[in-house]
């Protein structure tokens, strides 16, 4: 079965730093760990070429949170927040604070 996907959130990317990659017209916006740290966790959003030109802004909040803002029709905007919730209980409070700050 072939899926018609325009925007895909990916988790556990295991990348260092943050950035934007061009993959045959698709845009991969990623946010990972500090470049001095062994690659782990990491989130990214893959955007189809026809939607790539609609990206207004993006923000790599942390290795578990990335935000994209897209321009829609009729002067509307969409804010997409992609998160990767930690499994460890001791990391959850910090994670939830990151998400709260990102949304304010």
What can you see in these coordinates?
The chain has helices at residues 49-52, 89-103, and strands spanning 7-11, 18-23, 26-31, 43-47, 55-62, 65-71, 77-83. The chain is of the alpha+beta class. It has one domain (7-103). A 4-stranded antiparallel beta sheet has the order 1-4-3-2. A 3-stranded antiparallel beta sheet has the order 5-6-7. The radius of gyration is 14 Å and the shape is globular. The model has no long low-confidence stretch (mean pLDDT 85).
Helix content: 10-25%
SS content category: alpha+beta
Write down how many β-strands occur, each being a DSSP E stretch of 2 or more residues.
Answer: 7
Number of helices in the DSSP assignment: 2
Give the topology.
Layout: E1 7-11, E2 18-23, E3 26-31, E4 43-47, H1 49-52, E5 55-62, E6 65-71, E7 77-83, H2 89-103
Antiparallel strand pairs: 1-4, 2-3, 3-4, 5-6, 6-7
Short description:
This is DUF3391 domain-containing protein. With 104 residues, the protein is of the alpha+beta class.
Which features would summarize this protein structure in a list?
single chain; 104 residues; alpha+beta; four-stranded antiparallel β-sheet; three-stranded antiparallel β-sheet; 2 helices; globular; DUF3391 domain-containing protein; Endo/exonu/phosph_ase_sf
């Amino acid at each position: 079965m072939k899926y018609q996907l325009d925007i895909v959130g990916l988790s556990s990317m295991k990348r260092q730093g943050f950035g934007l990659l061009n993959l045959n017209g698709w845009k991969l916006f990623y946010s990972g760990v500090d470049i001095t740290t062994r690659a782990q966790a990491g989130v990214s959003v893959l955007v189809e070429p026809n939607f790539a030109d609609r990206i207004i802004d993006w923000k790599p909040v942390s290795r578990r949170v990335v935000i994209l803002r897209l321009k829609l029709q009729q002067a509307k905007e969409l804010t997409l927040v992609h998160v990767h919730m930690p499994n460890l209980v001791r990391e959850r409070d910090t994670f939830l604070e990151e998400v709260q700050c990102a949304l304010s």
